[in-house]
Amino acid sequence: MVAIMNSNGSSIRAISRFFEGDLQQLRSFYYAATHRSFTRAAHELATGQPSISNHVKQLEQVLGTSLFQRQRRGVELTPAGRILFELAAPLVEGIDRLPHELTERAAALTVSEVRFAAGQEMLLDFLAPVVQAFRHDNPSVRLVVHARVRTEAQAMVARGQIDFAVAARAGLPPGLDYQEVLADDLLLIVPPDHDLAARAEVSLAEIARFPLLMPDTRSSTRRVIEDAFAQGGVELTIAMELERWQVIKEFVALGQGIALVPAFSLGDDRRRFALPRVRYDFPRLSYGIITRAGAYLNPAARAFIDAVRTRSGLRPAEA
Fold this sequence. Notes:
CATH class of the largest domain: Alpha Beta
Helix content: 40-55%
Oligomer: single chain
């Protein structure tokens, strides 16, 4: 157990002396804990292994507790070490991120640019009016737009390649924040001359009688559909696996099968299909703004996000 303060307050004074000194001790501890190795920590910090050992030893002396258990293959954190790692990680990561963040913010003062990614249908059927209005109101702002599937868009945000993504929440990696802007429904679409077209309502079992067109296995919506049929004890007949909702819609229109699609993806295509209601309570599909936790967003990016929120009937985010 780590002693926070004894009867005469000496532990508090010792910790205060540490924070008046060199934070390199804490960085050495953080990287040793991250890699479970003093040698790899030394490589990360471009120093020698003895320097890492000395820093950790000094930190243990200041805090009055052991932070690592030395083993034949590397080191493991003690209970006190695990607590310190949880507390120190945001501080060290923030310090190490300072040069990059400073560069980004300085660039934002001179370059007005918004970089984001979204799926093709999200761009065409939900975000297109936002883009049009934003460009009209902000003609000097350059938009860099990437059409990407959810996993790729999330990865681009995590790597700092874009300011934000508009995508489904499913599979959100650690270190990313999420603000929901759209809770959508799954709709069944069938050709106008299909056997189910005249039906007001259909069951999962009735849907399963016909070939179903499905998104590929990267799709979070596909998992929602498969889970629903599995819970209902109904076996799916997947006729085709396709990557884009637009492609799925076209093949439904050609009579190659039926499909369950997000409502937003239909756009102006609703008149092309019959839409019988499904007798099943599908969970609503969540789509939102994905950003890096703690990352700086330039004023133009914040303004675009506010425009997306307004499109969804939400109030702009508070500054």
